[in-house]
Amino acid sequence: MEAYVDKDTCIGCGLCPSICEAVFEMDDDGKAIARNPNVPSDVEDEAKDAEASCPVNAISVS
């Protein structure tokens, strides 16, 4: 499973790292990044929750 953040769409709300800090973090520009794009199997549910919770649908986890 891989995670991707579209930085052009991201509004920098910080929700994704608060839900799944093992995969997402805030970059220096205030936008989210997938610091671990290869989602570990033990946090797949959290990564999918972060995807579903993104207010602007900037996250893709598949």
Automatic annotation (TrEMBL):
One of its GO terms (molecular function) is electron transfer activity. The keyword Transferase does not apply. InterPro entries: 3Fe4S_ferredoxin, 4Fe4S_Fe-S-bd, Fe-S_cluster_ET. Residues 1-29 form the 4Fe-4S ferredoxin-type domain. The keyword Kinase does not apply. Coiled coil: none annotated. Keywords: Electron transport, Iron, Iron-sulfur, Metal-binding, Transport. It comes from the Bacteria. PROSITE patterns: 4FE4S_FER_2. PANTHER family: FERREDOXIN. Ferredoxins are iron-sulfur proteins that transfer electrons in a wide variety of metabolic reactions. This is Ferredoxin. The lineage of its organism: Bacteria, Bacillati, Bacillota, Clostridia, Eubacteriales.
